[in-house]
Write a structure and sequence with these properties.
Helices cover 42% and strands 25% of the residues. It has eight helices and eight strands, in the order H-H-H-H-E-E-H-H-E-E-E-H-E-H-E-E. An eight-stranded mixed sheet has the order 1-2-3-4-5-6-8-7, with helices on both faces. The longest helix is centred in the N-terminal third of the chain and has 31 residues. It is globular and about 60 Å long.
Length: 264
């Protein structure tokens, strides 16, 4: 067991009630299809990938637990606000092996869920590149609450066969220009074609867009390829974060306005 894993388990045991520990163990057991024991002894029987999933879940839960009072206060202030919610759906796969992908507009009640999924999604990149000042896995729940209240920013939960598996935030930069910042999927749902369907959905949902913008990691060739495959082109300029990581910028110019046809 790695030292940081032992520390996380110790902190989890200290912060979680017995009911909370049982609840998380139950969720993980459903995911793996067999009982999971959240302890050094129990995890010693698991392979590296399974341990990593458990650690990401625990790490996200700890951060959510620490910041939960701020969520409660924010929700109390906005409990009488009628925030709009919207949903759109697409498909992933061909033939009989098709799955439903949806976008549901998030509100303040979803902040803890978004935070937990964001931590799990970005934690592998944080460990890889050590970009502690910029990685979304190091963000607080309060930052997500603040963005959820911004009039120019909108979060949507990414729903895969009724399960929330990630989120996407759309920023209105005015002049029919929109920025994706960020988009993420839980590690176990990456590589299934979900992200590509999500981008098709947001282009349909924001039919007035003339340009889309986003940023990604130069060293992540798979991400760069995905965006280029969807019509994004790299722009001039880049930002060196550290000796391991450089951020590059992409844009996609739309043609045809609201007359564009979508096949989702």
């Amino acid at each position: 067991m790695e030292p940081n894993h032992s520390n996380l388990l110790a902190e989890f045991k200290e912060l979680a009630t017995e009911a909370e520990r049982l609840q998380i163990a139950s969720v993980l057991s459903q995911h793996f299809g067999e009982p999971i024991e959240i302890s050094e002894h129990g995890l010693s029987k698991r392979d590296k990938n399974e341990v990593e999933i458990v650690m990401n879940v625990i790490s996200g839960w700890i951060l959510t637990k620490k910041h939960r009072p701020s969520i409660v206060e924010a929700h109390e202030r906005l409990k009488d606000t009628k925030l709009p919610r919207s949903v759109s759906f697409g498909r992933v796969g061909d033939g009989h092996d098709q799955f439903s992908v949806g976008l549901v507009q998030a509100d303040i009640q979803d902040a803890a869920l978004i935070h937990e999924m964001q931590v799990r999604a970005f934690m592998p990149l944080l460990r890889k590149y050590e970009d502690f000042d910029t990685n979304p896995a190091n963000e607080t729940v309060e930052q997500i609450v603040e963005r959820l209240q911004q009039p120019f920013s909108e979060y949507c939960l990414i729903v895969f066969n009724t399960l929330s598996v990630g989120a996407i935030r759309i920023v209105d930069n005015q002049n029919k220009t929109y920025r994706v910042s960020p988009i993420f999927l839980l590690p176990e749902y990456q590589g299934r074609g979900i992200a590509q369907t999500v981008f098709e959905l947001i282009e349909r949902q924001y039919a007035d867009a003339e340009k889309w913008e986003l940023a990604t990691i130069l060293q992540e060739a798979g991400l760069c390829y995905l965006y280029e495959k969807m019509g994004y082109r790299r722009t001039e300029g880049s930002k060196v974060i550290n000796d391991k990581m450089t951020i590059v910028f992409y844009e996609k110019r739309m043609e045809g306005g609201t007359d564009r046809q979508y096949h989702v």
